[in-house]
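[09:14] KT: can someone run the structure on this one? pasting the chain below
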Amino acid sequence: GSFTTLYQNLKYTNVVLEQPVLLQGKTTTDMQSKNNDYKYRYAYVTPCSDPSVSTIMDTTEGLLAARVFAKSGNSTAAWEIVRGIFSAQGENGFIPKYRYAYSNGTLSSEGDWLAGSSYPNYPIFGTPPADYLPADSTNTKGSGMLAATPLLSSIVLDIFYLSPQLDQDEDVLEDVTFYLYKWHEFLHEKRSGQYNIIHPWESMMQLDSPIWEVALADVIDLVNQSHYHKDIPQEVKNADDYPGDEVYLAELYLLDCLSNVNGGVDDAHLNKVCPFGMVDVGFASMHYQADLDLLQISDMLDDMNKRNYLSGSQRDHISSWIAQSSNTLESMWHTSAYIPTYSSLTNSNSSVKVDVPVADNFLPLWRGWDGYVESKSDEDTHVGGFQDVEGGERLDLLSFQMLEGKDSESMHAFGCGSSLMLRSYSCNYDADAENNPSVISPMLNYFVYNGLESNGALSISHYIRNTTLNILCGLIPNSDVSSVDEDCPASLSFVKRYDAKTGDARIAKGDEVCGTTSTVAAAVSYDMLVKDELYSYDPGIPIASVWVTVLIVAELIVAAIIMISCVLLSVNLFRRVRHDDEGQLLRMIKESRFEDRWGMRNDEAGLIYGEEYNAFDTSSRAPPTDDLGARTPSELLSRSNPSTPANRGDDLSLTVDDNPVTGEPVSWTEMARTYVNWINPFGGGGREYTGYVRQSEHARVV
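[09:31] RB: done, structure tokens below
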């Protein structure tokens, strides 16, 4: 049922003339547009299935729907919704509450309200200052100066955790981080001083909450004094959350005032021009959590080694923003009242405490004071919620107030003796039941349930979850045992508000289609019914995949160079060894006692030394012999142990002392040639020498 409703409300806008949707400083071709199917369109989610609202998206509702799409496996649609939101971002980082369909200059209806509905159309907001306008301001329309809730960074982080975390998911996260930073920069520069909202429509509270009668008191007085009037369509007055003429006219008065603000007015002092500004508890809670999540995104991009992760100075800014947001929440906590309280800023710049016990005061619980992210990295995770005091005193106080009965007479009791939770304001607060009915909001219950569960208050968190799902299924009376699996009807209606006393769906007359197909009710019901898996992130390798490839290629190149070097070195070594052997042979030939070392006779040496050597002159070279011409034993002994020849250096020819016959140098080349041709110890190619060789051991060796 949730999917049927959400996909009915999911719309795609094709950009005319096939021009890419423009962002500040970029086009969508830079953002997750590697698939050309999404290059010229963006996605948005309408508030319901009624055709009358087919051109508008509430940013908060769209983000909750995007989270469900990511959880169900359609992260592509989730990222497209995020892209559609950013395409309406202003130059100063501003993101509007409402995003209108791409119009090519005109919409089907140019009135102040969408025809046939209670939703405002973009002309009612006027033309904001230039730095609030998106890049394509002609075709992209927003809600003037009215900002979205600061939920964006938190949902973007959730979408990434719920996605397959593929390369394309990392690329989108990297691309949107710059825009997220600009959005937070706007919130802290323009909306983080004495007020964080400039109009009631920026709050997550019900339009008919009794708090607006108190917070808008000064504006209501101005409306009455100036006799301000504006025609309000009947469809608006028939809406279930219509707060009455007095409050609604005050809200329209503020819209007209803001539409006339020009660029010369400092955003930090808008209340001096338009008499309203308020510190909203829910807005502040979402803002603090979003600051923490933005820092977490920056850490993750750093782990991914992405080129567009935030710089050190930008991270320092985020850290200072976190401290600022935390201080804002701390300043709203009042132990005497137990719950955080609002403060409204008048045009006299004086702050007034707005002590109205509304259920939105429980929103600081969202995401909890303890961590909800389990990271696989060694980095510290950044988690949400303002810090509880030691022992969990604040959690105990807030939980007690949710269950406290009417008989306690406490102004902050929300139990009211009923099984239905949470009603929009406390049991004992005196409010106009006609203009301020007590209702149950599935969206508010969704946020409170998540916060309680994150903090470990499981009993009350499960009770709120189960009773909310039972209300959506029409199972009355409710119990703390969820029976939606067995008893929930197949044809389910998703209604935005339910009566806090009876649990009945509140559907305005004539609003049956939109009233039963609420996007926000369908999204939060699925999110509560299907639990999230434990959030985790695996940072993977510390360098990008492309650099891994480069590193592998570089290593292969180095290995190839080493291999080639080894081969060349081996070849050179073999050549050197052979060269050294030949050199040694030549040195042996050069020795004066060559014939002794090789055991050759004088006539054999003459063949090597050359013709100038007198082989028959035994008086000069040959040792004495006996009568038979044989050598004496002493000679043989000396030949067996030849003396080491003197080192004659590196001369290339013999000196005169080498040839005792002629005294002329012996040709070194001729000696080598004679040796190779006649003896040739290497085998082959030499001439056979048949001269007489004495049959001694030395001769046989030669």
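[09:33] KT: thanks! The chain has a mean pLDDT of 75.
[09:34] RB: yep, looked fine to me
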